[in-house]
Design brief:
The protein contains 11 helices and 17 strands. By secondary structure, it is an alpha/beta fold. The chain has a 7-stranded parallel beta sheet, with helices on both faces. Strands 7-6-8-17 form a 4-stranded mixed beta sheet, with no helix packed on it. A two-stranded parallel sheet has the order 10-13. The radius of gyration is 20 Å and the shape is globular. It starts with a strand and ends in a 7-residue tail after the last helix. The relative contact order is 0.16.
Length: 344
Protein backbone atom coordinates (compact mmCIF):
# COMPACT_ATOMS: atom_id res chain seq x y z
CA UNK A 1 0.00 0.00 0.00
CA UNK A 2 1.21 3.53 -0.78
CA UNK A 3 0.51 5.79 2.23
CA UNK A 4 0.94 9.56 2.43
CA UNK A 5 2.04 10.36 5.99
CA UNK A 6 1.83 13.95 7.24
CA UNK A 7 3.81 14.97 10.30
CA UNK A 8 6.21 12.21 9.30
CA UNK A 9 9.25 13.64 11.12
CA UNK A 10 7.46 14.09 14.44
CA UNK A 11 7.58 11.87 17.51
CA UNK A 12 4.54 9.80 16.58
CA UNK A 13 4.85 10.26 12.81
CA UNK A 14 8.39 8.85 12.82
CA UNK A 15 7.22 5.73 14.65
CA UNK A 16 4.29 5.30 12.26
CA UNK A 17 6.59 5.67 9.24
CA UNK A 18 8.98 3.02 10.56
CA UNK A 19 6.10 0.63 11.24
CA UNK A 20 4.63 1.15 7.77
CA UNK A 21 7.92 0.45 6.06
CA UNK A 22 8.54 -2.60 8.25
CA UNK A 23 5.14 -3.89 7.08
CA UNK A 24 6.18 -3.46 3.43
CA UNK A 25 4.22 -0.27 2.70
CA UNK A 26 5.54 2.62 0.62
CA UNK A 27 5.55 5.89 2.57
CA UNK A 28 5.29 9.40 1.11
CA UNK A 29 6.63 11.60 3.92
CA UNK A 30 5.40 15.18 4.47
CA UNK A 31 6.41 17.50 7.34
CA UNK A 32 6.64 21.27 7.78
CA UNK A 33 9.70 20.90 10.11
CA UNK A 34 8.68 23.79 12.37
CA UNK A 35 11.32 25.08 14.75
CA UNK A 36 9.01 24.55 17.76
CA UNK A 37 8.73 20.85 17.04
CA UNK A 38 12.11 20.06 15.46
CA UNK A 39 14.53 22.83 16.42
CA UNK A 40 17.32 22.99 13.87
CA UNK A 41 17.19 19.27 13.03
CA UNK A 42 17.38 18.80 9.24
CA UNK A 43 14.50 16.94 7.58
CA UNK A 44 14.97 13.17 7.34
CA UNK A 45 15.90 11.87 3.91
CA UNK A 46 12.96 11.67 1.55
CA UNK A 47 10.81 14.16 3.48
CA UNK A 48 8.75 16.62 1.46
CA UNK A 49 8.97 19.84 3.49
CA UNK A 50 5.46 21.15 3.04
CA UNK A 51 2.80 23.10 4.88
CA UNK A 52 -0.44 21.08 4.75
CA UNK A 53 -2.28 24.31 3.95
CA UNK A 54 -0.32 24.56 0.66
CA UNK A 55 -3.02 23.16 -1.62
CA UNK A 56 -1.12 23.52 -4.94
CA UNK A 57 1.51 21.02 -3.75
CA UNK A 58 -0.91 18.15 -3.14
CA UNK A 59 -1.80 16.81 -6.63
CA UNK A 60 1.68 15.43 -7.33
CA UNK A 61 2.14 14.00 -3.84
CA UNK A 62 -1.24 12.27 -3.80
CA UNK A 63 -0.79 10.58 -7.17
CA UNK A 64 -1.00 6.80 -6.71
CA UNK A 65 -1.69 7.07 -2.96
CA UNK A 66 -4.04 4.45 -1.46
CA UNK A 67 -4.61 6.13 1.91
CA UNK A 68 -3.53 9.13 3.98
CA UNK A 69 -2.33 8.97 7.60
CA UNK A 70 -2.69 12.54 8.90
CA UNK A 71 -0.49 13.13 11.96
CA UNK A 72 0.49 16.76 11.31
CA UNK A 73 -0.86 19.26 13.81
CA UNK A 74 0.03 22.20 15.99
CA UNK A 75 -0.09 20.64 19.45
CA UNK A 76 0.12 21.77 23.09
CA UNK A 77 -2.87 23.00 25.02
CA UNK A 78 -3.23 26.47 23.51
CA UNK A 79 -3.94 28.13 26.85
CA UNK A 80 -4.12 31.72 25.57
CA UNK A 81 -7.10 33.08 23.66
CA UNK A 82 -4.54 34.55 21.29
CA UNK A 83 -3.56 31.01 20.28
CA UNK A 84 -6.91 30.37 18.61
CA UNK A 85 -6.03 31.64 15.10
CA UNK A 86 -2.86 29.50 14.93
CA UNK A 87 -4.67 26.31 15.91
CA UNK A 88 -7.56 27.02 13.56
CA UNK A 89 -5.17 27.75 10.71
CA UNK A 90 -2.70 24.86 11.05
CA UNK A 91 -5.06 22.15 12.25
CA UNK A 92 -8.46 23.00 10.82
CA UNK A 93 -7.65 24.86 7.60
CA UNK A 94 -4.75 22.45 7.02
CA UNK A 95 -7.00 19.42 7.39
CA UNK A 96 -9.67 20.97 5.17
CA UNK A 97 -7.09 21.72 2.45
CA UNK A 98 -5.80 18.14 2.62
CA UNK A 99 -9.31 16.66 2.44
CA UNK A 100 -10.21 18.80 -0.58
CA UNK A 101 -7.02 17.73 -2.33
CA UNK A 102 -7.72 14.06 -1.51
CA UNK A 103 -11.14 14.41 -3.12
CA UNK A 104 -9.61 15.92 -6.26
CA UNK A 105 -7.09 13.06 -6.38
CA UNK A 106 -9.76 10.38 -5.72
CA UNK A 107 -8.02 9.27 -2.49
CA UNK A 108 -10.85 8.07 -0.27
CA UNK A 109 -9.29 6.52 2.84
CA UNK A 110 -7.99 8.44 5.86
CA UNK A 111 -6.59 7.77 9.32
CA UNK A 112 -6.69 10.96 11.40
CA UNK A 113 -4.68 11.61 14.56
CA UNK A 114 -7.07 12.96 17.18
CA UNK A 115 -6.68 13.20 20.96
CA UNK A 116 -8.24 12.43 24.32
CA UNK A 117 -8.51 16.21 24.85
CA UNK A 118 -11.75 16.19 22.84
CA UNK A 119 -13.49 14.76 25.92
CA UNK A 120 -12.55 17.56 28.34
CA UNK A 121 -13.21 16.07 31.77
CA UNK A 122 -13.68 12.34 31.89
CA UNK A 123 -16.68 10.42 33.26
CA UNK A 124 -17.58 10.50 36.92
CA UNK A 125 -20.03 8.93 39.33
CA UNK A 126 -21.12 9.48 42.90
CA UNK A 127 -21.54 6.40 45.09
CA UNK A 128 -24.97 7.67 46.14
CA UNK A 129 -26.21 9.73 43.19
CA UNK A 130 -24.86 7.84 40.19
CA UNK A 131 -23.28 9.38 37.09
CA UNK A 132 -22.62 13.11 37.28
CA UNK A 133 -21.21 15.71 34.90
CA UNK A 134 -19.02 18.04 36.97
CA UNK A 135 -18.28 21.58 35.94
CA UNK A 136 -14.82 23.12 36.01
CA UNK A 137 -13.15 22.91 39.39
CA UNK A 138 -13.17 26.22 41.25
CA UNK A 139 -9.96 28.06 42.04
CA UNK A 140 -11.06 28.24 45.67
CA UNK A 141 -11.23 24.43 45.90
CA UNK A 142 -7.91 24.00 44.13
CA UNK A 143 -6.24 26.56 46.38
CA UNK A 144 -7.56 24.68 49.42
CA UNK A 145 -6.23 21.37 48.13
CA UNK A 146 -9.66 19.97 47.26
CA UNK A 147 -8.68 18.49 43.92
CA UNK A 148 -11.39 15.90 43.28
CA UNK A 149 -14.51 16.94 41.42
CA UNK A 150 -17.40 17.31 43.89
CA UNK A 151 -20.78 15.71 43.34
CA UNK A 152 -23.20 18.49 42.31
CA UNK A 153 -25.83 16.95 44.62
CA UNK A 154 -23.99 16.06 47.85
CA UNK A 155 -20.57 17.71 47.36
CA UNK A 156 -18.67 14.52 48.11
CA UNK A 157 -15.73 13.54 45.83
CA UNK A 158 -16.70 11.84 42.60
CA UNK A 159 -15.05 8.62 41.42
CA UNK A 160 -13.81 8.21 37.85
CA UNK A 161 -15.24 5.93 35.19
CA UNK A 162 -13.79 4.90 31.82
CA UNK A 163 -14.53 7.11 28.82
CA UNK A 164 -15.96 5.48 25.71
CA UNK A 165 -15.98 7.03 22.26
CA UNK A 166 -19.67 7.95 22.49
CA UNK A 167 -19.02 10.20 25.49
CA UNK A 168 -20.12 13.78 24.64
CA UNK A 169 -17.24 15.95 23.44
CA UNK A 170 -16.27 18.92 25.60
CA UNK A 171 -13.15 20.67 24.26
CA UNK A 172 -11.57 23.02 26.82
CA UNK A 173 -8.60 24.49 24.95
CA UNK A 174 -7.71 25.83 21.51
CA UNK A 175 -5.98 22.56 20.69
CA UNK A 176 -8.95 20.48 21.84
CA UNK A 177 -11.38 22.60 19.82
CA UNK A 178 -9.21 22.18 16.73
CA UNK A 179 -9.14 18.39 17.18
CA UNK A 180 -12.94 18.25 17.42
CA UNK A 181 -13.13 20.37 14.26
CA UNK A 182 -10.69 18.05 12.45
CA UNK A 183 -12.89 15.07 13.30
CA UNK A 184 -16.00 16.87 12.08
CA UNK A 185 -14.37 17.97 8.82
CA UNK A 186 -13.18 14.42 8.20
CA UNK A 187 -16.62 12.98 8.93
CA UNK A 188 -18.27 15.47 6.56
CA UNK A 189 -15.67 14.65 3.89
CA UNK A 190 -16.36 10.91 4.26
CA UNK A 191 -20.06 11.46 3.57
CA UNK A 192 -19.64 13.99 0.78
CA UNK A 193 -16.66 12.43 -0.98
CA UNK A 194 -17.53 8.77 -0.59
CA UNK A 195 -14.59 8.23 1.73
CA UNK A 196 -13.95 6.49 5.04
CA UNK A 197 -12.09 7.76 8.10
CA UNK A 198 -10.81 6.34 11.37
CA UNK A 199 -10.08 9.04 13.98
CA UNK A 200 -7.59 7.78 16.57
CA UNK A 201 -7.98 9.53 19.91
CA UNK A 202 -4.53 9.18 21.41
CA UNK A 203 -4.22 9.19 25.15
CA UNK A 204 -0.89 10.03 26.84
CA UNK A 205 1.73 8.88 24.34
CA UNK A 206 5.33 8.38 25.49
CA UNK A 207 8.47 6.57 24.41
CA UNK A 208 11.93 7.03 22.89
CA UNK A 209 12.43 10.07 20.71
CA UNK A 210 9.86 12.14 22.60
CA UNK A 211 10.78 15.85 22.48
CA UNK A 212 12.11 17.38 25.69
CA UNK A 213 11.08 20.68 27.28
CA UNK A 214 9.00 22.06 24.42
CA UNK A 215 5.27 22.78 24.00
CA UNK A 216 5.22 19.40 22.24
CA UNK A 217 6.37 17.51 25.36
CA UNK A 218 3.96 15.52 27.48
CA UNK A 219 4.15 15.22 31.23
CA UNK A 220 6.18 12.01 31.01
CA UNK A 221 8.85 13.79 28.97
CA UNK A 222 8.88 16.71 31.41
CA UNK A 223 9.49 14.25 34.25
CA UNK A 224 12.20 12.53 32.21
CA UNK A 225 13.92 15.84 31.43
CA UNK A 226 13.98 16.77 35.12
CA UNK A 227 15.61 13.45 35.99
CA UNK A 228 18.22 13.98 33.25
CA UNK A 229 19.10 17.32 34.88
CA UNK A 230 19.48 15.62 38.25
CA UNK A 231 16.29 17.23 39.54
CA UNK A 232 13.23 15.57 41.07
CA UNK A 233 10.12 15.42 38.89
CA UNK A 234 7.55 17.91 40.17
CA UNK A 235 3.96 16.70 40.38
CA UNK A 236 0.96 19.05 40.39
CA UNK A 237 -1.99 18.72 42.75
CA UNK A 238 -1.70 15.61 44.94
CA UNK A 239 -0.51 13.35 42.13
CA UNK A 240 -3.73 11.35 42.26
CA UNK A 241 -4.84 12.40 38.75
CA UNK A 242 -5.61 9.24 36.75
CA UNK A 243 -4.57 8.92 33.13
CA UNK A 244 -3.87 6.29 30.49
CA UNK A 245 -0.30 6.17 29.16
CA UNK A 246 0.24 4.36 25.86
CA UNK A 247 3.63 3.57 24.33
CA UNK A 248 4.48 5.08 20.95
CA UNK A 249 5.17 1.60 19.51
CA UNK A 250 1.58 0.64 20.30
CA UNK A 251 0.32 3.89 18.78
CA UNK A 252 2.19 3.12 15.56
CA UNK A 253 0.68 -0.36 15.47
CA UNK A 254 -2.80 1.10 16.02
CA UNK A 255 -2.27 3.29 12.95
CA UNK A 256 -1.35 0.28 10.82
CA UNK A 257 -4.41 -1.64 11.97
CA UNK A 258 -6.62 1.41 11.37
CA UNK A 259 -5.25 1.84 7.86
CA UNK A 260 -6.00 -1.79 7.02
CA UNK A 261 -9.47 -1.42 8.51
CA UNK A 262 -10.37 1.84 6.80
CA UNK A 263 -9.29 0.54 3.37
CA UNK A 264 -11.96 -2.15 3.74
CA UNK A 265 -14.56 0.13 5.38
CA UNK A 266 -17.84 1.02 3.68
CA UNK A 267 -18.24 4.34 1.92
CA UNK A 268 -19.15 7.15 4.30
CA UNK A 269 -17.83 5.38 7.40
CA UNK A 270 -16.46 7.66 10.13
CA UNK A 271 -15.44 6.05 13.40
CA UNK A 272 -13.47 7.29 16.43
CA UNK A 273 -11.25 5.00 18.50
CA UNK A 274 -9.50 5.46 21.82
CA UNK A 275 -5.84 4.48 21.50
CA UNK A 276 -4.80 3.64 25.02
CA UNK A 277 -3.18 0.98 27.18
CA UNK A 278 -6.37 0.16 29.09
CA UNK A 279 -4.31 0.24 32.31
CA UNK A 280 -4.95 3.46 34.27
CA UNK A 281 -2.07 4.94 36.26
CA UNK A 282 -1.77 7.96 38.57
CA UNK A 283 0.48 10.87 37.68
CA UNK A 284 2.31 10.33 40.98
CA UNK A 285 3.12 6.75 39.95
CA UNK A 286 4.21 7.88 36.48
CA UNK A 287 6.67 10.30 38.07
CA UNK A 288 8.00 7.57 40.34
CA UNK A 289 8.46 5.13 37.47
CA UNK A 290 10.24 7.69 35.29
CA UNK A 291 12.44 8.83 38.20
CA UNK A 292 13.70 5.26 38.65
CA UNK A 293 16.67 5.36 40.98
CA UNK A 294 17.02 9.12 40.57
CA UNK A 295 15.65 11.91 42.77
CA UNK A 296 12.24 11.13 44.27
CA UNK A 297 9.31 13.07 42.81
CA UNK A 298 8.06 16.11 44.70
CA UNK A 299 4.29 16.49 45.00
CA UNK A 300 3.82 20.25 45.03
CA UNK A 301 0.10 20.83 45.52
CA UNK A 302 0.37 23.45 42.77
CA UNK A 303 -2.35 23.50 40.12
CA UNK A 304 -3.24 24.89 36.73
CA UNK A 305 -6.67 26.28 36.06
CA UNK A 306 -8.43 24.29 33.36
CA UNK A 307 -6.57 21.01 33.98
CA UNK A 308 -8.86 18.01 34.17
CA UNK A 309 -8.76 15.74 37.21
CA UNK A 310 -9.18 12.27 35.71
CA UNK A 311 -9.56 10.95 32.19
CA UNK A 312 -9.27 7.20 31.64
CA UNK A 313 -10.16 5.51 28.38
CA UNK A 314 -12.06 2.39 27.42
CA UNK A 315 -10.04 0.30 24.93
CA UNK A 316 -12.94 -1.93 23.92
CA UNK A 317 -14.02 -0.45 20.57
CA UNK A 318 -10.47 -0.49 19.18
CA UNK A 319 -10.08 -4.08 20.35
CA UNK A 320 -13.36 -5.13 18.77
CA UNK A 321 -13.13 -3.28 15.45
CA UNK A 322 -9.39 -3.01 14.81
CA UNK A 323 -8.00 -5.92 16.78
CA UNK A 324 -5.86 -3.46 18.72
CA UNK A 325 -4.70 -4.15 22.25
CA UNK A 326 -1.66 -2.39 23.69
CA UNK A 327 1.29 -4.76 24.06
CA UNK A 328 3.50 -2.51 26.22
CA UNK A 329 2.17 -2.17 29.77
CA UNK A 330 2.74 1.11 31.65
CA UNK A 331 4.82 -0.79 34.23
CA UNK A 332 7.18 -2.04 31.54
CA UNK A 333 7.13 0.98 29.24
CA UNK A 334 7.56 3.70 31.87
CA UNK A 335 10.44 1.81 33.48
CA UNK A 336 12.09 1.68 30.03
CA UNK A 337 11.31 5.34 29.47
CA UNK A 338 13.43 6.26 32.49
CA UNK A 339 16.51 5.70 30.30
CA UNK A 340 15.06 6.17 26.81
CA UNK A 341 16.73 8.92 24.74
CA UNK A 342 14.73 12.10 24.19
CA UNK A 343 14.80 14.36 21.18
CA UNK A 344 16.64 17.59 21.93
Amino acid sequence: MRVLLTGSAGFIGSAVGRALEAAGDEVVRVDLMTADAHGTTPPPAGTHVLDVRDAPAWPDLLRGVDAVCHQAALVGLGVRVGDLPAYASHNDLGTAALLAAMHDAAVTRLVLASSMVVYGEGRYACAEHGEQAPGMRSEGDLRAGRFDNPCPVCDRPLGWRTVGEDTPLDPRSSYAASKVAQEHYASAWARQAGGAVAALRYHNVYGPGMPRDTPYSGVAAMFRSAVARGEPPTVFEDGGQMRDFVHVEDVARANLLALRSVVAAPTGASTAYNVCSGQPVSIRDVAGAVAGSGPEPVVTGAYRLGDVRHIVASPERAARDLGFRAEVSPDEGLARFATDPLRG
